[in-house]
Amino acid sequence: MPKSKIAGLGYYLPEKIVTNDDLSQVMDTSDEWIQERTGIKERRYAEKHKETTSSMGVKAAEMAIANAGITNEDVDFIIFATLSPDYYFPGSGVLLQRQMNMQGIGALDIRNQCSGFVYGLSIADQFVKTGMYKNVLLVGSEFHSMGLDYSTRGRNVTVIFGDGAGAAIIQPSDGDEAILSTHLHADGTNAEVLSYINPGSHGGAHDPEGQEKYEYPDQEFGGAFITQKMWENEDLYPHMEGPTVFKFAVKKFPEVIMEALQSNGYTIDDLGMLIPHQANLRISQFVQRILGLSDDQVFSNIQKYGNTTAASIPIAFAEAVEQGKIKKGDLVCLAAFGSGFTWASALIRW
Ligand code: UT7
User: Fold this and answer.
1) Of these residues, 114, 183, 280, 301, which one is catalytic?
2) Is-catalytic flag, 264?
3) What are the two backbone dihedrals, phi and then psi, of residue 82, each rounded to the nearest 5 degrees?
């Protein structure tokens, strides 16, 4: 079977920088707390009413297309990963397609949160390897700042997240460059531990006490995804039990990285660069220590951008290449963990 490769990477970060001190003006937090627990110094926020999840994706996609040396007309399939879409439906994939004048080709939206880019890469890899598509555009984009809780109640979530987009073009490869393998996992046991459950159709059904809380459905026929009760309960924000997520993440990251290396007959010494999902600098440092990786084998940019979920890996990957930290022939591992829980890795010969 033919191989596939990443032929071009791109990224986009909104101009507006929001520092930890800026956040401490609106909620009870501090630069010291945020840096000590997460490593984050600042993040970017998109411009409300002008930028959208899909429009940021377009900018990243344009850069990836240029870096791959192709044009929009060459793209034959779109995969869009986000947890902060422009609309509840349709997905952001068709909105990006419209802005890029690519009407007619397929557009697939995937919802795998922090693992979205690696899940998408796996899908693109299979399509290219089977010969179905020749230039798959994969985009991860997030507009978190629109939907965060800026009161002190939301501080454990809000200080972590930032906006941005990353993209890649996946093509057939006839050289050594290749996506060697991808490894996808999920365990829904803890689905609500890191979640944004409203608006949705659940009506509290996963939690018997929740039915009363949501009063939904509130009539025999019809209803609404958003109810008055949700507003009253201020239950329209993301929820995260941080320490539980942290514990799972530091277990699953090393597992899925080793799975990628071992299934290709490599060891940790062969690894040129690990691009972990930028969830928390402490998580990346923990993983580095457990696996015995050196500082120049692990890339981090969370200090500047916070956690950009589906965009974090392609932004970090593109920056690492741009900064000359990944060279032709290097073995690169992408690894992600996030809401679902989902976790995934990809091993790439650059
Ligand atoms: O990308 C998706 C995957 N997500 C992750 O990987 C996130 C994983 N989890 C984490 O990164 C960490 O759990 C956090 C950074 C979210 C939180 O750090 P933590 O060390 O686990 O803190 P905690 O949630 O256990 O809270 C410790 C204390 C609490 O106060 P009390 O109860 O001890 O008085 C919190 O209320 O820190 C408080 N706190 C804050 N204080 C100042 C929580 N957030 C903040 C804040 N500023 N922003």
Assistant:
1) 114
2) no
3) -165, 155
